[in-house]
Specification:
- The protein is α/β, with parallel strands linked by helices.
- Among the domains are: about 110 residues, Aspartate Aminotransferase, domain 1 (Alpha-Beta Complex); about 240 residues, Type I PLP-dependent aspartate aminotransferase-like (Major domain) (Aspartate Aminotransferase, domain 2, 3-Layer(aba) Sandwich).
- It contains 32 helices and 26 strands.
- Strands 2-8-7-6-5-3-4 form a seven-stranded mixed sheet, with helices on both faces. A four-stranded antiparallel sheet has the order 11-12-15-14, with helices on one face.
- α6 packs parallel to α19.
- The longest helix has about 40 residues.
- It starts with 7 loop residues before the first helix and ends in a 14-residue tail after the last helix.
- The mean pLDDT is about 95.
- Its EC number is 1.4.4.2.
- Belongs to the GcvP family.
- One of its GO terms (molecular function) is glycine dehydrogenase (decarboxylating) activity.
Length: about 950
């Protein structure tokens, strides 16, 4: 008997990760290729991708490694980070993530693979969690309406500046910022203000608004509470003075401090902003964290970003949804004053659940303990002869040590604690939830003093001013009192997750959003303390592992895209857009072309493109789109000729927003360059290009990339996201930089786009691992299979639904658009009906009515196997047959499974008086009773919710009906 010998080298390799990531195996790919009409992946992509953009060289990336090897590499990088006790402060603090939240939210694919809740009927769990978050923010800030999370504190403050300018009565004037605001917040505000012509004045407001500033007019004021120095002062007088000048007042507040201090709303603030990081979200070297904004009721309909509200479903039951969606930038476009698209939903859920788990009493206890340590630390320093600058503080002290501040900081570091060098004579020390006696002793030693904690505790008074102590109740809703035990909390989290549809249940075929596998191996290192517990302003020598990972990811993304430099700072795709456009603006200005302010944007573009252009100080000019979906080249030439020397940049999505490879992209780029403009290629559709074509080589000067699309960072219910910006060499000097970290960008950069030097650095290990696991060839095959899957779906559905746009050889790129308008016109069945009916079949709907109203944009991604793709196709074909029953009159137009979808379990009870059966309602063709997903609510009335805006937890009696 002969036994085949398998070489050890082959056995050692094991199953390549590529085979785990790419859904269709070789036989499935062969079947799909036969359906599409090609013999191989190379043949298909050779036919689909225009020659003008094709890359001829393989990606120069390290070869693919196994999962075990990549985890070992990441462990080696993590070991090069040194995590000291984080007593730097400045908006970033040590915190304990309750294990039940860590395991069942942050590490749970039911939460981190969910998409933005645009289909609210299957998003009720995360919408309730976001409503909890909004309630926490609204009640602690004392302002009635809060959004569903912004990106970080710095950008939230910049959004508040824009809001104040938009709604305030003072036209013109300056935006006044207290000098005791966080330095990174001031810098982000200045970056955002300059392109739009806003003058920012930074002044010491401890004694009120200086007369010389008041005389110039002030449209908005930003105050920090407590200040960056730690000072707690009564903001009421300066707020009153600002209101007397007609200014809108924003308070950047610490939520933990607000459990003990009078709220900004009670002090008179109009807007409150901040971060919820210290509510159980790891620092992660800067992010991701959920920022927040809360406003007075009269400004609720002007809030940027997302707002969760309460509405009713078709049975009149309470149901949650995103409210006021007309404010989204895909609709407002160039009229928008914010480009917020993604939000930090996963982190907002964690922060909200931290408050649910601890409740108001637990939060107060954490705050009191934090303050108590600060008070004892201060008293011990005073006893040793060290001057403490402020008598009233919450968690942060500023100590005066003339000429020896650097020495003290270095000594603390030797003792295992990071504190902040404020200047040559001052040191700041911040206490937090993780501070203990060991840290206090180390800090005292660094100052050359000693202290007896028990003796100090017996003799030391608190340092919170009595007049500012909070007296009102907050977080009174039962949700903040019911889940104290881990058992109860675990079941609550499970109950909410069960109400949702995420990628762990099935395919989410959203066009333009690339819902692909977020592999567990990629996710695992994010929660390692060496990555999660590092302060973003820790000394660079303590972050060598992170900095190596960042540099390697930048280099590998540059190789993939063909650009010369990449910045990872933007913490969302929209922020990457802004960073890229600011680089273009700075480049033109450096060349003396200050008149180049026109941004050409095709009418089919993502709505954030236009919003970002306006924020970058540009004038948007729309270029027509042809009937076949391509850019109208004739109209483009006409617009170039019309605007001539004013042309700054063309923003174009490639492959196009219509899901095709346009053949004229080279000519388009050349025309813009010949006119002296730059070309911005929106990277939203990069999943169709990696390994096949490089934007930086076929004519683009700048792109943002969506790491939460192409490079496997999970969507997390709408965030976290990372939106790096890649540029050619001439734009590299104008990438983002950061005032607190010189290594984060060029000295000539445009300023910070995000509050942290490398934005949401905590999730960069995910994309680093994906690229390392796949290697260049694996990345290319992933792209090829994504293109194959989209074309397979297009071919299978084409006999039933017209495919609206195709490119070369009748092929699509990585997504396809099916046109429902003829069916809707003939039968009355709407795109909404089909989207909601897909829920009954166990699917999340594709992208609805974008970029063309009345259509569905479908993107299967390379991660979905053929069984799931076929299940989706068969559901769509079955729905087409159902539409035919409506058209024939077998089912009435006003009583059929489509117009009544989705169907809940509760809808089956009692008498059944519909023209179709119960089984047809909930167990349509191919749906297994054993595996059925039951939506928790029926179709939601969006208009009702917008008319009756409820944006925090309603009382329980509201659910009685």
């Amino acid at each position: 008997m002969t036994v085949n010998r398998i070489p050890l080298s082959q056995l050692e390799r094991g199953t390549p990760f590529e085979q785990r990531h790419i859904g269709p195996d070789a036989p499935a790919q062969a079947k799909m290729l036969a359906q599409v009409g090609y013999g191989s992946l190379d043949e298909l992509t050779a036919a689909a991708v225009p020659d003008v953009i094709k890359s001829t060289e393989a990606l120069r990336l390290p070869g693919a490694r196994t999962e075990a090897e990549v985890l070992a590499e990441l462990r080696s990088l993590a070991d090069r980070n040194q995590v000291l006790a984080p007593m730097i402060g400045l908006g970033y603090y040590g915190t304990y993530t309750p294990s039940v939240i860590l395991r069942n939210v942050m590490e749970n694919p039911a939460w981190y693979t969910a998409y933005t809740p645009y289909q609210p009927e299957i998003s009720q769990g995360r919408l309730e969690a976001l409503l909890n978050f909004q309630t926490v923010v609204a009640e602690l800030t004392g302002l009635p309406t809060s959004g569903a999370s912004l990106l970080d504190e710095g950008t939230a403050a910049a959004e508040a500046m824009a809001l104040a300018r938009r709604v305030g009565k003072v036209k013109g004037g300056v935006f006044l910022v207290d000098a005791d605001a966080l330095p990174q917040t001031i810098a982000v505000i200045e970056t955002r203000a300059e392109p739009t012509g806003v003058e920012v004045v930074v002044a010491d407001l401890s004694e009120g608004i200086p007369a010389e500033v008041a005389e110039r007019g002030v449209f908005g004021v930003l105050l920090q509470y407590p200040g960056a120095s730690g000072a707690v002062r009564d903001l009421g007088p300066v707020i009153e003075q600002a209101h007397g000048l007609g200014a809108i007042v924003t308070v950047a507040a610490d939520l933990l401090a607000l459990t003990l201090l009078t709220s900004p709303g009670e002090l008179g603030a109009d807007i409150a902003v901040g971060t919820t990081q210290r509510f159980g979200v790891p620092m992660g070297f800067g992010g991701p964290h959920a920022g927040f904004m809360a406003v007075r009721e009269k400004f609720a309909r002007s809030l940027p970003g997302r707002l969760v509200g309460v509405s009713v479903d078709a049975d009149g039951n309470k149901a949650y949804r995103l409210a006021l969606q007309t404010r989204e930038q895909h609709i407002r476009r160039e009229k928008a004053t914010s480009n917020i698209c993604t939000a930090q939903v996963l982190l907002a859920v964690m922060a909200g659940m931290y408050a649910v788990y601890h409740g108001p009493e637990g939060l107060r206890s954490i705050a009191r303990r934090t303050h108590r340590y600060a008070a004892l630390l201060a008293e011990g320093l005073r006893a040793g002869g060290v001057e403490i600058v402020h008598g009233a503080y919450f968690d942060t002290l500023t100590a005066r040590v003339p000429g020896r501040a650097a020495e003290v900081v270095a000594a603390a570091r030797e003792g295992g604690v990071n504190i902040r060098l404020a200047d040559a004579d001052h040191v700041s020390i911040a206490c937090d939830e993780t501070t203990g006696r060991t840290q206090l002793a180390a800090v005292w030693t660094a100052f050359g003093v000693s202290g007896d904690i028990e003796a100090l505790d017996a003799a030391t008074e608190d340092a919170l001013p009595g007049a500012l102590l909070r007296t009102d109740d907050y977080l009174t809703h039962p949700v903040f009192h019911q889940y104290r035990s881990e058992t109860a909390m675990l079941r609550y989290l499970r109950r909410l997750a069960d109400r949702d549809y995420a990628l762990d249940r099935g395919m989410i075929p959203l066009g333009s959003c690339t819902m692909k596998l977020n592999a567990t191996t990629e996710m695992e290192p994010v929660t390692w303390p060496e990555f999660g517990a590092l302060h973003p302003f820790a000394p660079a020598e303590q972050a060598q592992g992170y900095l190596t990972l960042i540099r390697e990811l930048e280099e590998r993304l540059a190789e993939v895209t063909g650009y010369d430099a990449v910045s990872l700072q933007p913490n969302a795709g929209s922020q990457g857009e802004l960073a890229g456009l600011l680089a273009v603006r700075a480049y033109h200005r450096a060349n003396g072309d200050t008149g180049r302010t026109v941004c050409l944007i095709p009418s089919s573009a993502h709505g954030t493109n236009a919003a970002s252009a306006v924020m970058a100080g540009m004038k948007v000019v729309v270029v027509k789109t042809r009937e076949d979906g391509d850019v109208d080249v004739e109209d483009l030439h006409a617009k170039i000729a019309q605007h001539g020397a004013e042309l700054a940049v063309l923003m174009v999505t490639y492959p196009s927003t219509h899901g095709v490879f346009e053949e004229h992209i080279g000519d388009i780029c050349a025309a813009v360059h010949d006119a002296g403009g730059q070309v911005y290629v929106d990277g939203a559709n990069l999943n169709a290009l990696v390994g096949l074509a490089k934007p930086g080589r076929f004519g683009s000067d700048v792109s943002h990339l969506n790491l939460h699309k192409t490079f496997c960072i999970p969507h997390g219910g709408g965030g976290p996201g990372v939106g790096p910006v890649g540029v050619r060499a001439h734009l590299a000097p104008y990438l983002p930089n950061h005032p607190l970290q010189p290594a984060a960008g060029p000295e000539t950069g445009v300023g910070p786009i995000s509050a942290a030097p490398w934005g949401s650095a905590g999730i960069l290990p995910i994309s680093w691992a994906y690229v390392r696991l796949m290697g260049g060839e694996g990345l290319k095959r992933a792209t090829q299979v994504a293109v194959l899957a989209a074309n397979y779906i297009a071919k299978r559905l084409e006999p039933h639904y017209p495919v609206l746009y195709t490119g070369p050889n009748g092929l699509v790129a990585h997504e396809c658009i099916v046109d429902l308008r003829p069916l809707s016109k003939a039968t009355g069945v709407s795109v909404d009906d089909i989207a909601k009916r897909l829920i009954d079949y166990g699917f999340h709907a594709p992208t609805m009515s974008f970029p063309v109203a009345g259509t569905l944009m479908i993107e299967p991604t390379e991660s979905e196997d053929l069984t799931e793709i076929d299940r989706f196709c068969e559901a769509m074909i079955a729905i087409r047959a159902e539409i035919e029953k409506v058209a024939s009159g077998e089912w009435p137009a006003d009583d059929n499974p489509l117009c009544n979808a989705p169907h809940t379990a509760a809808a089956l009870g009692g008498a059944w008086e519909h023209a179709y059966s119960r089984d047809e309602a909930v167990f349509p063709a191919g749906v297994s009773a054993a595996d059925k997903y039951w939506p928790p609510v029926r179709r939601i009335d969006g208009a009702f919710g917008d008319r009756n805006l409820v944006c925090s937890c309603p009382p329980l009696d509201a659910y009685d009906n």
